[in-house]
Amino acid sequence: MKKIIHVPLIEAIEKMSGDDFNAALDASCQPNAIDSINWPDAFPYAPACSFRIARSHTHLAVSFETEGLDIRASYLEDNGNSWEDSCVEIFLSPGGNEYYNVEITCIGSILMACGSDREGRRVLPLSDVARITRRSSLEHKKYDLVGGPYKWRVCALIPFDLLGLDGSALPHSVEANFYKCGNLTAHKHFASWNPIETEKPDFHRPEFFGTLEF
What's the 3-state SS for 115-146? Predict the structure, then answer.
C-alpha cells in the first residue's frame, strides 16, 4: 500500500532565514517517519528519522531530523558518494520513465542524478546542484563519531526545474520515496518511508514509491 502526503504551500519559503524556515515547516507540516526496516535480518538497525515537506511556487522544501548512534561525514564537496556517509535521500519521479535522486549528507553535501533505473544514471552538473539551498545543524566538516546518541537536522530547498517540474503548473501528484542510509557508517542501515519489497537493499525501485500530492 502506497503512503500519501499532501504537500502544503508555504509562500516564499525559499526566501526565509534558517530559523524562520524551520519554524514555518514545524508549524505547517506533520513529521513523516522513515521507519520501514525492509531487511531486518541483515540490517536491523535504523536511526530515528523523520521529515517534513512543503513547497513554494518555485521550490520543494524538505527538512530531515535524525537521532542515531554515530555520525560519518567524509565528503565535503557535492556529487561525492553521499550514500556512504550519514545520509538522507529523496527519490522523485515527475512522470515518464525517469526519476531523480537527491542524496544529502548530514553536513549538507549533495549528490543529484537522474535516469530510468539504477544503471547509467546522469549526475547533474555541479552548477545545478549548487542551486539547491541546504542548511545543517552540523558544522560543514568531516565527522567520524560513534557512541551517541547524536541528533542532527538537515534541510534542502530544491528548485522545481531541477526535478523536471514547472512550479507554476504542478501536476496533481508525483511519486516519491524518502530514505535514511549510511553504507560506511559504524551501524550500516537502509530505511525507507514507503516500504520496499525486495530481497536485498535497493532504493532504485520506483514501483515502491509513495505519493506526494500538491
Answer: ECCCCCCEECCHHHHCCCEEEECCCCCCEEEE
List the grid coordinates of 156.
534542502
| 6 close to 213: Cβ distance less than 8 angstroms | yes
Give the 3-state secondary structure of residue 84: helix
| Beta-bridge mates of residue 111 | 103
Cβ neighbours of 34 (radius 10 Å):
25
Grid cell digits, residue 123: 549526475
Task: Say how many C-beta atoms besides its own lie within 10 A of residue 15's C-beta.
Answer: 12
Which grid coordinates are listed for 143?
565527522
Tell me if 132 sits within 8 A of 69, measured CB to CB. no
* Predicted structure pTM score: 0.96
The amino acid sitting at 151 is K
With residue 24 as reference, give the H or E element that holds it: helix 18-28
Question: Do residues 13 and 59 touch, judged by C-beta distance below 8 A?
Answer: yes
Distance CA 92, CA 102 (A): 8
Instruction: Tell me the pairing of strands 210-213 and 4-6.
Output: parallel
- Residues 34, 27: Cα–Cα separation, whole Å: 20
81-93 confidence digits (pLDDT tens): 999 999 999 999 9
Among residues 50, 93, 49, the alpha carbon closest in space to that of 71 is found at 49
